[in-house]
Amino acid sequence: MNGLVWKDTVLLKNGLIYIAVFGVVFSVLFRESNVMGIVCPMLFSSLAASSFAWDDQCGWNMYAVSAGVPRRRIVKSKFMSSAIFVTIGFVIGLAVSVAMPSLTGTETDLISAVIVSVTGWVLSVIVASISILVNYWTGSSIKAQYISIVVLMASIAFLVSATIVASDLLGGNMLLVTAALLVVAVLMLTGAYEISCARFEKRDL
Amino acid sequence: MENAVEIRGLCKSFGSFRMMDIDLDIPRGYVVGLIGENGAGKTTLIKCITGANLVDSGSITLFDSQEGGGNEVSVGVVFDECHFFPQMNGRQIGRMMSSLFANWDGDRYAELMSNFGIPLDKKIKEYSRGMRMRIQVAVALSHNPDLVIMDEATAGMDPAARDEFLDLVMGYMQDERHTVLMSSHITSDLERIADYIVFIHKGRIVMNGPKDEILDGYGIVKGSEPDVLAIGMENIVCIKRDEFSTSALVKDRKSVIEAYPELVVDPASLDDIMVMVIRGDVA
Q1: Residue A171 banded pLDDT, cuts 50, 70, 90
Q2: Which residues of B touch A64 (CB under 8 A)?
Q3: What is the pLDDT confidence band of residue A1, given thresholds at 50, 70 and 90?
């Protein structure tokens, strides 16, 4: 499975760099710090869909399965790759959140930056899981890709709104909100993985 | 005889195409050639064996292990199109494969790539068609597979490249535990290296047997229609009627020659057999 994760990383190396540079430039230009803790990992979570596009373009899945790579391993590698991309986004977002205030001459609220970044990481894991599940559910046709984008946008909008509502309900306690989101993320990951495997195992390649 | 692949009652349908009741044994240690016209079901059959396609019914057993998919069996595959990523180079492909295959031999891979004249730092998108086939072969042979499956692997290769490729296959077969299933439209390649021939036509196996027996047995009887039909329909596999003559494919040409010495009976090549079955009328 390491080879499959490595493959996705190599293929998306340029995408990783572009998004990282975009994130840093955006926050410097607009002097946004804490919000990068959410935006950065969210941007990196979109790379999951790109890895599917590469695989479909080359017919890679058909070759890999034919050569004896188990289908579940292929699905698992997608989740692993996404987790790595999101974590890279988390690190960059956190670094920007911590560094930006010192560049603008304001005080760094380290705890706030960490909590926001962790929340961003958890939200992005959920979004990446949904993205992977939708890709396995809908397949690789053009229509399916549009459906995938719509579902993803709706998911992001819902999650962000739900987070804001939950924050209000929990009296602004972001730790509790993040903990609740973490539970959702674990459930989402498990469910998305099992459903993705079930769909992929029933597909002719 | 131990079998590398055993297929029983395999059925698979795609839209209007149906592959029905395929029973096939691929004996271990031999080269099996798979022939058939375009759309006959060769690739579908191969994909069912490898697990890329799911069967509607029936069973496929590889070396007495799980159904097609090769979870516990090492399978090397070569397809007519290269499925590696164009922005990767040979070195990166090798690194990726090293973690996918338990028996990966990096030295063997590097040696094959060197013999093929493919620089490891060259990207796949810069490869010629022949190079794309060669890297597939290098990958397929670099993890000591029990079974190598090739689907139209020599399509588009020049004669020298094909000759080199067939020599590689023969080298691989020096180990008696190795098995090759090879589909090809270039029947002369199969006549050269195959031990067994399987002919699939419209989703069904119409001929399956040792290559030498097929080539020694089958013949084409040519003449006027009354002369050809005189040998008896029980001796005729199929008939092809042209504007000026009639040809009949017979399974035992030596018997026909003995019984009807006045008739012209030519040995049938695999090409001849395919054309007769595909374009002729079944007797």
Answers
A1: confident
A2: 100
A3: low
**Which residue of chain B comes nearest to A70, CA vs CA?**
B71
Question: In this predicted structure, what is the pLDDT of residue B23?
Answer: 96
**Structure tokens, A52:** 């599917």
Tell me, what's the ipTM?
A: 0.89
Question: Quick check: A66 and B53 CB within 8 A?
Answer: no
Of B54, B95, B99, which is closest to A202 when you measure between CB atoms?
A: B54
Please state which architecture CATH assigns to domain B3-213.
3-Layer(aba) Sandwich (3.40)
How many Å apart are CA B87 and CA B82, to the nearest integer? 13
Dist. CA B141–CA B251, nearest whole Å: 37
Identify which of A4, A10, A68 has the shortest CB distance to residue B71. A68
Query: What integer pLDDT is reported at residue A71 of this predicted model?
Result: 95
Q: What percent of chain A has pLDDT over 90?
A: 27
Instruction: Mark yes or no for CB contact A11/B99 under 8 Å.
Output: no
Domain residue limits, chain A: 2-201
Q: Which of A1, A63, A71 has the most B C-beta neighbours within 10 Å, making it the best mutation to test the interface with B?
A: A63
Give the alpha-carbon dihedral of B12, B13, B18, B20, to 10 degrees.
Answer: 20
Query: C-alpha angle B127/B131/B133, rounded to 5°?
Result: 125
CA pair distance A46, A81, nearest whole angstrom: 12
A63 and B77 within 8 Å at the Cβ level: the answer is yes
Q: Which residues of B touch chain A, with CB atoms under 8 Å apart? A: 14, 47, 50-54, 69-71, 73-77, 79, 81, 83-88, 92, 95-101, 140, 149
How many angstroms separate the CA atoms of B102 and B100, rounded?
Answer: 7
Query: Could you write out the DSSP letters of every residue in B150-187?
Result: EESTTTT--HHHHHHHHHHHHHHTTSTT-EEEEE-S-H
Q: CA A23 to CA A96: how far, in whole Å?
A: 8
CA atoms of B71 and A69, how far apart (whole Å): 7
The answer to whether B76 contacts A67, with C-beta atoms less than 8 Å apart, is yes
Pairwise CA distance, residues A113 & A99, whole Å: 10
Roughly how many angstroms between the first and final C-alpha of chain B, as a whole number?
A: 33
Confidence check: pLDDT of B252 > 50: yes
Per-residue pLDDT band for A140 (boundaries 50, 70, 90) equals: low
What residue segments make up the domains of chain B, in order of their start? 3-213, 218-282
pLDDT score, position A39: 82
CB distance B38 to B187 below 8 Å:
no
Q: Following DSSP, what letter does each residue of B56-90 receive, concatenated?
A: SEEEEEETTSSSTT-SSS-EEEE-SS--S-TT-BH
